[in-house]
């Protein structure tokens, strides 16, 4: 058990160090398929030189790497194809596809990215929605304008207000001060 813990810790340290050592990184994942459809996933890649891009290869990590990381190998998945492509802006990404449909709603991938001067591992976990599933969006609350309240000023008696103010002034005691004469 200690041996596997040390291996897992070594894997984590390796992932962290490799992330700082190289400009290449794996970013967000965009899942474009639903449950029962073939895999269609895009994984963003960080900045890399053209030489690094040409030497990049991606794959699902082997079962022993899953085991060393303390993860279960996704044996229920069909064979996956990993391809490095670039978008219209020239930014690289990994395209993960399958020919057969994915029938497991919970998918856990440990992607291994390798190039001429290094290797990087990253775990991706996601859920596949059933076909036709549309999440229910909460309806915005109806906003109604606040009606202004009208006060009839003629009902106020200015003299009553003035007399009350005078009473408060008279009733408020003033602090007493004593004068002490120097002798």
Mean pLDDT: 79
Q: Strand fraction band?
A: 25-35%
Radius of gyration: 35 Å
- Strand order across the largest sheet: 1-2-5-4
Low-confidence stretches: 16-22
Count of runs of 4 or more consecutive helical residues:
4
String of helices and strands: HEEHEHEEEEH
- The backbone outline, from C-alpha atoms, is elongated
**How many strands?**
7
Largest sheet: 4 strands, antiparallel
Straight-line N-to-C gap? 95 Å
What level of helicity do the residues show? 25-40%
User: What structural class results from the helix and strand content?
Assistant: alpha+beta
Topology (elements, then pairings):
Elements: H1 2-21, E1 26-31, E2 38-45, H2 50-55, E3 57-60, H3 63-68, E4 81-86, E5 92-101, E6 106-115, E7 118-127, H4 158-171
Antiparallel strand pairs: 1-2, 2-5, 3-6, 4-5, 6-7
